[in-house]
Amino acid sequence: VHNRSQFWQVGLPLARPAIMAGLALVMMEVMSDFGTVEFFAIETITLGIFNVWLGMNNLVAAAQISIVGFGFILALLGLELYARSRQQYVASSRNQTPLAMLTPTKLGVLACWMVCVIPLLFGFFIPVGVLLGLVVTNDLLADFLAIREIIGNTLVVAAIAALVIMLLSAFIVVTASFRAGAKTRKLALFASTGYAFPGTILAIGVLIFSGQLDRGFAAVFGAQFQGVLVTSIAVLFLAYIVRFQAVGYGAMISGVRRLPANMMNASRVLGQGYMESIRQVIMPLLKSSFLAGIMLVFVDVMKELPMTLLLRPFNFETLATYTYQFAKDEMLEVAALPALMIVLSGLVPVILMSAMLRRYR
Q: Is 0.85 surpassed by the pTM of this model?
């Protein structure tokens, strides 16, 4: 926009749906946060559920509190969907006139640089610098040897969860896009809403559901199967699927939407069956989206804290839970190396994904 009146009368009204959607997403992310609010002792619904469950050993009360958070998240989801429903894109002609570019003054250039650099400075460089400073003051080799098994646990769990979630997401997206009706597509979209809910709320739901399954197993196969699911790592993978399936769904559906609308029909007209068309035409074109989704899910699972903390088996640690325990006890020097490993492990997939996207662009 060229002046303030255009901003208030044209630019801001056009951006209002996107602002509302972004605001709802940010509020859901803030409500889902656990580690930060716990470290700074800020009482939130998420932290309250955790304290009532573990501190008071009262799962029923924690479930009752989670209902309040569940209702609030549903309201935010409704706000976000309402905002997106009001977004409409209309092209008045095929030849679009590009917007005029404004050349900012030197002060404007400096302001733009500051707006871009400040979040990066305070959100990455300063925290990583502090972690590096704490790491180099300790015995680096001894600290690394102490957490090498934990690093292996984290990488294996994140890799398996990412692969399972992406295979499931690919099946859901391909089926909903090329073979299902409108109701099934809406159901597939609804199945990807788990990411909006805090991990503590999902952990309660998954634990109660797993307990019911365990009772069913015990009734059918005998008492020796009582608790076989709740006490295993399978319940943790189930929670990961519920929460992070939305990430895989988003990666795959964005790839499907970039495909030509008649791609499947053209393959079927040329004599290929449905499965052959999916295997030989559709999936090769979605390879980049599949790989990008694996990297995104890998990073999310690796740094997931509340669900892992609540549902992990006994004597099983990940980098996130290990860091949390020492940070909670104010032992920041010990927590620095695993925290830095989380940052570095998350950076590698992001760098690879950026390079891959540039290659496929």
A: no
